[in-house]
Amino acid sequence: MNHGGGPPWKGRSEEKGDKEASLQAAIKDAWKKAEAGGAPAGTYVVTRIEIETRNPIHAYSVTIDPGP
Fold first, then answer.
1. What pLDDT digit, counting tens, does each position of 4-39 carry?
2. What residues are paired with 62 via a beta bridge?
3. Which residues, including other chains, have CB under 8 Å from residue 35's CB and lie 6 or more apart?
4. Torsions phi, psi of 65, nearest 5?
């Protein structure tokens, strides 16, 4: 994983209080980080999805890369 702002970018959504974790929120977080790193608009690929569980799912993490 690149920690210097370039691809890939990782996003995360975690359950907090009454706010449920979601895959969509994790993808939005990854895109926000990509945009902040200078990524242009376009097509991106989710290359990895991870979940953390405590029954039910507690958090989602995704990794995105530029598309083909």
1. 577 999 999 999 888 899 999 999 999 999 999 999
2. 11, 49
3. none
4. -135, 155
